[in-house]
Structures are given as structure tokens and as C-alpha cells.
């Protein structure tokens, strides 16, 4: 096993990483970041912040991310080339620095304003470049079998819309659907235990007292954050993980799920109503786990 594949900590302090993307130091996102830094430090965490705009982090994924010759210069495939470069220690310095932060962190918080139902471009560039194949996932190590299964991650973000606008009957549609590509397709795909998102609904349209209350609510949540249960996703054991089987739900699982009132998850809805708050609230111990069969 190469040293790049070893995620054992070499020192005792707990470590948290905040990936932060906002242009203004006086923004609500900056205030939310500062609350997280303060509270986590009080809990004994060593907190590292990657301020992407201040770092002028390069968002576009190009062959400049690879030091030395390409494996296939005639047909450049970013994923394949960066995987080989990671294995051979030939990724650019800025990517290596961020991967080191990820490797050290037990908790990662993505702090950002919601742009076009997703993360800002500079944060998407961080995801594209830093969470490279080999380092963050392989075809054998993904989802609940993923490389980062011993780490926790979460989204903390502001919206320009009200909470009602992101309800199932709201103009923007169900926030659970909005969050599925980010939380399942990125965080859970890499194996992270995904904590429920911290959503600050429309702070720009709220009075100062309401914004202060939002931040105090965030501070209170941070005090118990690591004791929270993660969100529920469909375990890999429910699927036929082979190309012959199409990576589909096993027939016996589909048969058992046929009697359930909801789909398995937001994404695995099976043509049924979505399980309520699947991407915004962790399941309590009293609730049935829709991702497991008995």
C-alpha cells in the first residue's frame, strides 16, 4: 500500500477542514464560517480553512494539473491522467496541498451560497480537481464502501429563496431533489458519512435579529454536531455490483420494496413518493431505515 492510500492520523488533535467560497469578508457566509471556526476550536479541533477566492484557486481542470508527460497525449482524458499522476506523485502543487488537508480532516464543511441550485464554480472546480480518482474513489471503493467512509462531511449554505420556495409544492421544487447530486453524487460517492445540511434560508432578506438567530442556531448545532446520525443512503449491498447485473437493485430487494409507501431514497424513488426529508434530516432511531431490508 502506498503512503498516499494511508489515512491514519499521525498526531492527536482532531482536525476539521472548511472549504469556503464567498467573495466578501463581510458576507453572511463569512460569519457562518467564523462561527464554525470558533466553535470547533473550542471543542479542541485544529481548523483549517481553504478560502477559495482568497487563494485564487484555479477552477478549470486542464492538463496543467499534471506534471510531466501525459499517458495519452492524443486523447486527453482528465480523470485517467490525474489518476495516474496521483499514483506517481505528479499532480500540481495546489491539488496536492488540498488533498493533504482532506486526508488530515475528520470533518469537512463546505460553506457557500447556493448558485444555480448548486455550488459556485470555484467550489465545483475544487471538487473536480481535488477529489481525483484514486485519491477520493475507485470503481471498487465508492459509496458506503468508499475511501472516506471514516470521515464526515456536510454542506452549509445560504439561499436567495425562502424555505417555502423549496418545498415540494414550491416554485423551486423540493430541496431534497436539489441536494441529491451534491450529497449523494459527490460526498456519499466518495464514502463520506454525510451530515444533514445546514441551510440558511434567505439571510439577505431577513432583519439583523433573524440573521443573528440563524448564527446562534448554527453555533448550538455545532456543539453536538459530531454526535448526529448521518443521512440515510441506499447501501451497496442492495445492488448487483457487476456490469452483467447493470448495478441495479437486486430483484429480491425490488420485490420487498414494492410494499413500501416510499422509494428507497430521493434518487432511488422507484416511481413512488420520495421518502420525506431524505436529504435534509437524519433518520431517528425510532424510524424505519428505508435503505435496509429485513
Automatic annotation (TrEMBL):
It is an enzyme of class 1 (oxidoreductase). The enzyme apparently serves as a quinone reductase in connection with conjugation reactions of hydroquinones involved in detoxification pathways as well as in biosynthetic processes such as the vitamin K-dependent gamma-carboxylation of glutamate residues in prothrombin synthesis. Its EC number is 1.10.5.1. Transmembrane segments: none annotated. Its cofactor is Zn(2+); FAD. It comes from Amphilophus citrinellus (Midas cichlid). It is found in: Cytoplasm. Residues 256-294 are annotated as: Disordered. Keywords: Cytoplasm, FAD, Flavoprotein, Metal-binding, Oxidoreductase, Phosphoprotein, Zinc. Residues 16-221 form the Flavodoxin-like fold domain. It catalyses: 1-(beta-D-ribofuranosyl)-1,4-dihydronicotinamide + a quinone + H(+) = beta-nicotinamide D-riboside + a quinol. The keyword Zinc applies. GO terms for cellular component: cytosol. Homodimer. InterPro entries: Flavodoxin_fold, Flavoprotein-like_sf, NAD(P)H_dehydrogenase_qn. It comes from the Eukaryota. Belongs to the NAD(P)H dehydrogenase (quinone) family. This is Ribosyldihydronicotinamide dehydrogenase [quinone]. GO terms for molecular function: dihydronicotinamide riboside quinone reductase activity; metal ion binding; NAD(P)H dehydrogenase (quinone) activity.
